[in-house]
Amino acid sequence: MNEKFNFSAVQAPLPYEVTQELVKSISQGSPDAPSPLEFDYTTEKFGALIRHAEETLRTLLHIPVNYRVLFMAGGEDAQFSAVPLNLLSDHKCADYVVTGVFSKEAYLEGKKYGDMNIAASSAGASPAFSSVPEMSRSDFRPDADYVHICYNNPVYGTSYRTVPETGSIPLVADMSSCFLSAPVNVSDFGLIYAAAGQNYGISGVTTVIVRDDLVGNAADITPSVLNYETMSDKQSVFRAPDTFALTVADAVFTHILNEGGLEEMKRRNESKVSLIYDYLDSQVYYTATVDKKYRSSTHVVFVTGNSAMDERFLQAAEEAGLYGLRGHSAVGGIRASLYNSMPYEGAEALIEFMKKFAMQNPKLDF
Amino acid sequence: MNEKFNFSAVQAPLPYEVTQELVKSISQGSPDAPSPLEFDYTTEKFGALIRHAEETLRTLLHIPVNYRVLFMAGGEDAQFSAVPLNLLSDHKCADYVVTGVFSKEAYLEGKKYGDMNIAASSAGASPAFSSVPEMSRSDFRPDADYVHICYNNPVYGTSYRTVPETGSIPLVADMSSCFLSAPVNVSDFGLIYAAAGQNYGISGVTTVIVRDDLVGNAADITPSVLNYETMSDKQSVFRAPDTFALTVADAVFTHILNEGGLEEMKRRNESKVSLIYDYLDSQVYYTATVDKKYRSSTHVVFVTGNSAMDERFLQAAEEAGLYGLRGHSAVGGIRASLYNSMPYEGAEALIEFMKKFAMQNPKLDF
Q1: How far apart are CA B113 and CA A208, in angstroms?
Q2: What pTM did the predictor assign?
Q3: Which residues in A lie closer than 8 A to residue B39 (C-beta atoms)?
Q4: pLDDT tens across A212-248, in order?
Q5: In chain B, what residues touch A74 (CB-CB under 8 Å)?
Q6: Alpha-helical regions (H) of B166-260
Q7: Model confidence over A110-130: pLDDT tens digits?
Q8: b/e string for A245-259 if b means 16 or more Cβ within 10 A?
Q9: Which positions ≥6 away from A134 have C-beta within 8 Å?
Q10: Is A5 in CB contact (< 8 Å) with chain B?
């Protein structure tokens, strides 16, 4: 095994072609044609870049005309505050579904601004958060201003497989860890947000896709940089926007389009994840921790059943050129994150290594 | 004149050596040693980078131990909200000094959160904002929670030359456009903030230097990403921080230290700005618009007295390799921004061009 692969959940590698292009344009910067590291956000050229990024994203996701696209600062944490600040009405109540670390933190931050309720949780699953709750419309308070979910849970390796039914209550989804990995029916949601760093771009920018009627009702206390209406009016250009992270995001959107769009991303991602799950389900050495019905298409979590053996696995994997496989500290074990930029060969190399490791490390020896 | 120079006020060129270093490390990224574009913010390596950036900044500015250093997202606009959200006490009142575009917007944003007062303004100067108000302690309300100023005004080319006396009222200064251009006595301020993009780094990160006693009193409604105490507890790492902008900031802090620190930056900047002002004060073709007592050490604004001639100047300057000299739309005319990365030769080239232009374009012809 000669090639190396990075399975990290936090920051995926950029597509090779995008990195090459960035290096070239950074190297070629000059006083009359500044590089993307020296982008003046007040120029028409930067306005054109933002519009291009938006248009490309609209094409990729078939975003309906009654949805706005905003590029904001501050990662997921900023949206944990922005959502209640912008979407709560006068009676200030919203429902949260807790399926892991991020959805819980969104709930805790939301509580600063209103009467927040945990409508459902998979904390009681065994192991904890190894599934996603089944819900019907009656699980939500009829007067909730929104229902908040985290669509894919990178820590536990779970995901919704169908969009929960919330009737007329706007559904808000944190899609940071699965954004652009497959097509999404945007109309199913009132609002989608996704911090960059996994399937698109580098951390520093967060994409918000929000239905028109949910814009313009922000609380008076909303900071301008978190106000969807203000950001929409300013076409996402406050002082000073993350010009380079936006440049990278635009480049990755374009790259995905050129590679065949989201149907093609879905096909590739499913083939990688199936390869690994098919193997996991066919043997007894490793155990997949997630209920089959709720498996993420991006994150595969498994254990050997012995934490010392897991450690040995992680060390041997690095020696074999497979990096970033350590499970989240809340879960332990092993986690393979298969973002868009992970080639099929990465999944193959992992399986090959898993087979070899299982053969060379019989559990009885341990 | 063969060399080209960029005098843009918005985003200064990065030091050449820093750009070269970044290109090298981006090019060398690999699955086992991800490049700065693929930085996992949960790693110890990133924690070490943040600590290094902080330590270097502490050395540069001799930051006292009772001040914290935070790296936050969202540019100046985010701080326009964060300052009142964190610093207002129960009676919620603060004073603002308005000396231009940014200080006015800080005041307007602040009004969302309390009883804000314009303690002084240079709007009535002729031309407007061509000076900075002279103030004494009695100009501020004794019960103000803070006084907010914008230390250097890039739009008008003015700057405070001495720190205003506010007694026991904490002085808050937006230093975005002059940060690290010269030494600062941090103890004169309760809080200093500076968005990156001019004298350090690329846009996306904002440095906040705040005295201990001003941390921990945030209003309950403060979003976590704008809460100084939360950011301090998290050592500036929320989900997800702007890893690349922080990498660049750290590289520029280090570069400044290696070049001789802030005394050396001050010496270089004064020599550039003096060269231009000495010329401006010695002739009658061009007029400097700013009162001598309040001239910025970074931004030099001047006019020919005829807006069509200003246009001709800007066009001819670009043809001669001098870019980004257009004055801000609120002022018009010509503006040379002389950030740390502008070499002395840039100021010399500008003077040479100004002399030639004045000779070739007698005003009587126009």
Answers
A1: 26
A2: 0.96
A3: 11, 203
A4: 999 999 999 999 999 999 999 998 888 888 999 999 9
A5: 73-74, 78, 225, 238
A6: 228-233, 243-258
A7: 999 999 999 999 999 989 999
A8: bbbbbbbbbbbbeee
A9: none
A10: yes
